[in-house]
Design brief:
eight-stranded mixed beta sheet, alpha+beta, single chain, about 25% strand, six-stranded mixed beta sheet, 20 strands, FAD/NAD(P)-binding domain, 9 helices, binds flavin-adenine dinucleotide, globular, about 375 residues
């Protein structure tokens, strides 16, 4: 089957990877494969630290379970290094979160996931860099941390090896007839195929009737902090990678404003130093900007027609949700199997279509 994928963020590349591995002919049409949020993401695989519940938790757990295998395959085919750890995330709690997270941790444990409620003594001994302002934390042992940039690089190399064509073009029109896509028009060419997958990230409402809008995130890169594990708190998260540490992230409803701002850097630095005071002495490397694909209820959108799937709105968790998002597409293309997530996460839950300002107010 010839499958055209529109968008080359983590979702598009992962879908392309699974389809190409299964022997399909895949073309990716993308305006700019470096503009996606995926290149700047923190790479935390953190459904429990995020305090997720309900359908969003089920989707995230399904994806977390696929992660080891996904990273293994991408590493193997790309022959690239990918920093990937599954040794848990330290969820640092502020007072008004404690009761809620104690209950959540018990719920997650009843589903088979491990956690440890740390005593003050254990916290001071094992996490000596954490500020003494914080004396409560949970270690969610099944969570993970992947270098999103390395994963993206490796995926591009793997796709190259699998013969996937990446075409630089901007899709400007989607020609539809009922529940079928006839073709997709770009500035340079018109694309025909047997199947289409739309993974447009925060730009999703430009040509599709879905309420996706950007939430800007600024994220710092620093060097010289010796921590092994992600420290995730409500005020800041500090994410160690192989040779640097990320500090995230602002959350700004300012449309596609690409500017790196003094206010953003100041807020991130102050909050990070409050969490881990020795960050003050670290080397500042850079600050990056990405646009999270948000929806009014902060959950993704999975829509399908006779020959297409839309996979969008992954908001704060697109890196985590990449493997399950590609499995959902693969199940349709390979086996005609429709995941229950199409019903749960259909865009029909937003009766106002892509009128995001209105939808944002009403949900
Ligand atoms: C600061 C920050 C920190 C984050 N941290 C985490 C984290 O720790 N863990 C986690 O799981 N997630 C995290 N996220 C969220 C995650 O980055 C996103 O959910 C994810 O990257 C979305 O991937 P995507 O493939 O849908 O979109 P993107 O990566 O944004 O890619 C979309 C692609 O579509 C292309 N495109 C759009 N429109 C068109 C068009 N008309 N024609 C052609 N191409 C088009 C774009 O050029 C782009 O290449 C973070 C995000 C930010 C900003």
């Amino acid at each position: 089957m010839l499958v055209n994928i529109i968008g080359s963020g983590i979702v598009g590349l992962s879908v392309a990877f699974e389809l190409a591995l299964s022997g399909h002919r895949v073309k990716i049409i993308t305006r700019n494969y470096e503009e996606g949020a995926s290149w700047v993401a923190g790479g935390m695989l953190a459904p429990f630290s995020e305090g997720l519940g309900g359908d969003m938790l089920s989707l995230s757990i399904d994806s977390l379970k696929l992660y080891d295998d996904f990273v293994y395959k991408v590493k193997d085919i790309s022959n690239h290094t990918i920093f990937y750890r599954r040794d848990g995330i330290l969820r640092v709690l502020v007072d008004d979160e404690v009761a809620r997270f104690q209950n959540l941790a018990q719920d997650y444990s009843s589903m088979g996931f491990s956690y440890e409620m740390l005593s003050v003594e254990a916290l001071r001994k094992d996490y000596p860099l954490l500020s003494e302002e914080f004396d409560k934390a949970i270690l969610f042992k099944d969570e993970g941390n992947v270098d999103a940039q390395q994963l993206m690089d490796a995926l591009i190399f793997a796709l190259h090896r699998l013969g996937v064509q990446i075409i630089l073009d901007e899709v400007i029109e989607v020609k539809k007839e009922g529940k079928r896509i006839k073709c997709v028009k770009g500035f340079k060419d018109t694309y025909n195929g047997d199947f289409f997958v739309f993974t447009p990230g925060a730009w999703g409402n430009a040509h599709l009737d879905i309420p996706v809008y950007p939430i800007k995130g600024q994220i710092l890169k620093i060097r010289g902090l010796d921590i092994d594990r992600v420290h995730y708190s409500r005020i800041a998260y500090v994410i160690p990678k192989e040779s640097y540490v990320l500090i995230g992230a602002t959350s700004e409803d300012v449309s596609f404003d690409h500017r790196r701002t003094v206010a953003g850097v100041r807020a991130l630095s102050n909050n990070a130093v409050r969490l881990i005071p020795s960050i003050d002495r670290c080397e500042f490397v850079e600050v990056n900007v990405g646009f999270r694909p948000a929806t009014p209820d902060e959950m993704p959108i999975f829509d399908r027609g006779d020959n297409y799937v839309v996979s969008a709105g992954h908001f704060r968790n697109g890196i985590l949700l990449a493997p399950v998002s590609s499995k959902i597409v693969l199940d349709i293309v390979e086996r005609g199997l429709e995941s229950e997530y199409f019903r749960i996460f259909s865009s029909e839950r937003f009766p106002n279509g892509n009128h995001t300002d209105k939808a944002k107010k009403e949900y």
